[in-house]
Design a protein that fits this description.
Layout lengths: L2 H7 L4 E5 L6 H15 L3 E7 L3 H9 L7 H35 L6 E7 L2 H8 L3 E7 L16 H7 L4 E4 L9 E4 L4 H12 L8 E6 L4 H12 L5 E6 L3 H11 L4 E5 L5 H7 L2 H8 L4 E4 L1
Helix pairs in contact: 2-4, 3-4, 9-11
Length: about 290
């Protein structure tokens, strides 16, 4: 095990739960609390407030007469200020309710953070302090969709250099994990996380390789986990990766999957479709992603 890699990746202080009032928010709290309790780290609950008052003023200022322009602009400004105040209050109520929920898990070190700006701005500001980020697969604006991922999720996964747990269901404590493994750098990071984190201690792991000539990769990964006392099952599968991995996950009642996230070749992703996005869309179990 590369201890330098492990220390660099997982030396953050807090488990971060991203909340925006969507239905999956309770599950985000529960999974974040589970992680925080298992690894003995503080839990930080965050709500980001995006402001659009400049856009609102610009939309209307060109359509009003000279005599009434300043009055209407002032009124628009007041509307936006009131809206901002309401969003702040709603966010505070949500964070307070979330705090009460995670306290039921026995979490005592809890921080509440309300940020003015985009979620990405919040995460960039906090990244050095983050150990794992927990986020719902779809935010408030897209929660009525039954499939697909939220518009902010891809940018979060691509930008973050710390693990991101994407939540898409009610919480159930994982009894088995699956590592989708191809020997890439991001997969080795996921392997290092399993081997080094208290989160995965005593949880059996299925290491799955899709494609030919995976025996050596599987043997290498198996050795890493068995050396730290983790029960391992190795499997080599054929077929479309997202389809066979989701089927294996369902057939074996695996509650949590770990995998590398997105290639660095964005152009290739656009041409062929991102494997990560396909997995996020296809599975109904949480995914822990590393870049």
């Amino acid at each position: 095990m590369n201890n330098n890699l492990s220390n660099k990746l997982f030396n953050g202080r807090v488990i971060l739960a991203c909340l925006d009032g969507s239905a999956v928010g309770e599950s985000v709290c529960d999974y974040a609390a589970w992680i925080a309790k298992k690894v003995g780290r503080p839990l930080k609950l965050i709500h980001s407030i995006e402001h659009h008052h400049n856009a609102a003023v610009a939309d209307y200022s060109g359509a009003i007469g000279l005599g009434s322009q300043q009055d209407l602009l002032n009124e628009l400004t007041n509307v936006e200020q009131n809206r901002s105040s309401l969003l702040i209050k709603k966010g505070q109520l949500m964070l307070n309710a979330a705090k009460q929920r995670v306290e039921n898990f026995g979490i005592t070190e809890i921080e509440i953070y309300q940020h003015h700006g985009t979620l990405m701005e919040s995460l960039i500001e906090l990244e050095d302090d983050i150990r794992v980020t927990v986020i719902g697969i779809r935010g408030k604006q897209h929660e009525e969709q039954s499939k697909g991922i939220g518009h902010q999720l891809e940018s979060v996964i691509r930008s973050m250099h710390k693990p991101v747990l994407v939540v898409n269901k009610e919480f159930s404590e994982p009894k088995k994990t699956m590592l989708a493994y191809d020997g890439s750098t991001s997969c080795k990071k996921a392997l290092a996380m399993i081997a080094s984190s208290k989160l995965f201690k005593d949880i059996p792991c299925h290491i799955v390789h899709v494609g030919n000539q995976g025996e050596a990769l599987l043997a290498e990964a198996k050795s890493v986990l068995e050396d730290v006392g983790i029960e391992v099952t190795c499997v080599q599968l054929d077929g479309a990766a997202d389809e066979v991995l989701v089927r294996y996950q369902i057939d074996n009642d695996i509650e949590l999957t770990l995998m590398g996230a997105f290639s660095h070749n964005r152009f290739r992703d656009l041409l062929l479709g991102s494997f990560t996005a396909k997995m996020l869309a296809a599975t109904n179990k949480p995914l822990l992603l590393l870049r």
